[in-house]
User: Fold these one by one.
Assistant:
Number 1:
Amino acid sequence: MTTTDTHDTHGTPHPGSATQLHMSLAETATAHNYQPLPVVLASGQGAWVTDVDGHRYLDCLAGYSALNFGHGHPRLTAAAQEQLARLTLTSRAFHNDRLGPFCRDLAELAGMDLVLPMNTGAEAVETAIKVARKWGYERKGVAPDRATVIVADGNFHGRTTTIVSFSDDPVARDGFGPFTPGFRTVPYGDSAALEAAVDENTVAVLLEPIQGEAGVLIPPPGYLQSVRDVCTRENVLFIADEIQSGLGRTGTTFACDAENVTPDVYVLGKALGGGIVPVSAVVSRHDILDVIRPGNHGSTFGGNPLAAAVGHAVVELLRSGEYQARAAELGERLRTRLEDLVGHGAIAVRSRGLWAGIDLDPTLITGRQACMRLLDRGILAKDTHGSTIRLAPPLVIEPSQLDWLCEQLGEVLTPPAG
């Protein structure tokens, strides 16, 4: 595939261009809680997006996995459009005809009993924490207000005040105290440290099976099974935050599937909304979610008919295993091509399915610089932690497009002659 087959000429936005005008408006009218790349997107289809000046880009971030099925997937947009014309919101004060089928089939996909639907990923994590504490007091017999949850260093579960209380990222944490107590942090990937941290007040272990924001960090083989064993032995809930890693991204339905491990609780989001609406969920068994009773927890928009219709369509897409298999097959292709870059501008590569973290040689280039150069070549990617970039293309990406991505990255990392 040649460059001219894929995108137009890119570069720094020109003064007076539509891109520059939109960026200036956003700069003056929005709070500065992000530092986006200088591109203003206007439309998308499949793995491609187009900016307001008509330039096309291969989307290799996919909304942090929210767009696992690409932009404008016909089955997902059809489900949304049909529901938009019927009913969009009831609140949970009433039943709606889309919620039951969605929750039934999502629970079946996860091998669980019940679904507690929410909206955003952070909201689902907060919900899981509340469920774990209530379970600990009612079912495990932990003394009131003594429950603790074990988490891992380097974690990213969201940015609410409770969640940043157990973050070790100073940018997310500093200036937002006082912090919520009840969390104990252990090294990620160290099952012995995790087991040593468990005591009579421990109600749950909350982990990402693969740490996405940290740079797609994959734990040592057997780690998830060890966590499962410790939690079973100590009567502690294993909560798997699969918001980024779940629903096909890693080549299996859930990242935990790679070790044939089933947690007690799945926390899902991002791809569950098909890139159309925010949909998240806590999925678990009766003996856990039955501790939540009317009035304990809720959300006006959680489980709304539009969200349930789209979420149900996502579950239907995953039932055949087609997208999981595609992510696994193309993931091997991506891994092989990226590993060829080690020693040629990259110092390490970690990948699972269509999800990769590439550590760059900081003496040659920063992650932000690499993403800017990729942007100039028609590719959207995201940096993290200074010298790492993340790739998470939609699962609908074509093999030739994946090859072109790797070719362009290789050229970006090649030092200029002389």
Note: The first strand starts at residue 41 and ends at 45.
Number 2:
Amino acid sequence: MTTTPAPTAPKSPAPPSRSVLRDPAFLRLWAGTTASGLATWALPFVLGLAVLHRDLGAAGLGLVLAARTAGFLVAVAVGGVLADRHSRRAVVLWSALAAATAAPLLAVGLGHSLALMTAAAALAGAGQGACRPAFQALTAEIVTPERRQQANAAMTVAVRSSTLAGPTLTALLAAFLDVRTLLLGIGALWLAAGLVPGRGTARATASRSPEELPDPSSDAPPAAGPRAGFRAEFLEGIREARRHPWFLAGLGALVAVIALGYSATGVALPLISRDRYGTEWVLAAAMTAYTVGALGGALVIARLRPRSPGWAAFAGLGAYGVAPLSLMLPVHPAVVVAAYAVAGIGIELFNVPWFTATQREVAPDKLARVSSLDFLVSYGLAPVGLALIAPAIERFGVTPVLAACAAACFLVPAAAALVPTARHFGRTDPATRD
């Protein structure tokens, strides 16, 4: 006797993913990132106030800021290794405590010891550099894959807001507080950056589908035995980066835009604002428009899911070319301001998918080291570009240099988009992994 099989109950749709902005663990991480961003952007402004008050000379300011940059570049590589070796939360804590310790040392040295201030600035830069890859990797631990783009966009909003709020709040507080007190306030912000974030968990990795998990044969950490040295582990991170052609292509595009585009506009914009337009307003308005545009770009990309995210990201990065292009031509100042707003939008249309893809594609135990390579390129090449662009402008003139830099900003990201795996920032289309 045959029986009719009982009808199967239809599968209920999966509940919608809760917004990352309602996740207390992520909100703590976001608050810590915001505090570190405020401290980072406030410090140069406070040191500039010290120059105005004649507590620090112009040459001393340059030395102190250079020491901070050097400390950052050394520590960002070391921090990447440490964040893959140990708890990312612990690396954030100790890095922030180092930066917090530097603040009172800067206050003590102000007006008394330039050597102490230089050493303290190097310590502050080291704390800032060591925590960056740890923050990036901690985001991947705390946030599940389907919400990471939204999380990275929120992190970008925190960073961009800090670039506006840090100097602005410092200027307001400077009306009531002296420079040493402001330096101690920066130390308090770093304390908050270290103490507020919570501990990462394994749930983000555990929720990945089998296709998203890295190949165990190549990415699994060793089960036993002594660990390799710092140099060997850093080289492991480089080897991991080389496994991803889209990542190498992205770094190459970043080199062109940062070392050429950023540097050319950084040198040329003040000159053109003064000589062509006869006012500092164009300089201030363009830089503000860039930051506001970046905030808008982050809000857009938090929900936008392009069919070809890599191609869309490289198009956004290439949009920075409109900034040097606008400075080449005798246009109305509003055109320059609008061009900088477009450049700001584009840079975040690149950054957010870039960070999200790195967190998705890179082996979790090497994520901090690969992220440190990104930060080394992003922060390390800017001074090099500035050092080369200024003599080039003096020798060849501002217009030819801007033309070459604009062409590089357009063409190099376009060439990077042609690299295999660049279309989707990964070996396969992320939409096929659901």
Note: The radius of gyration is 23 Å.
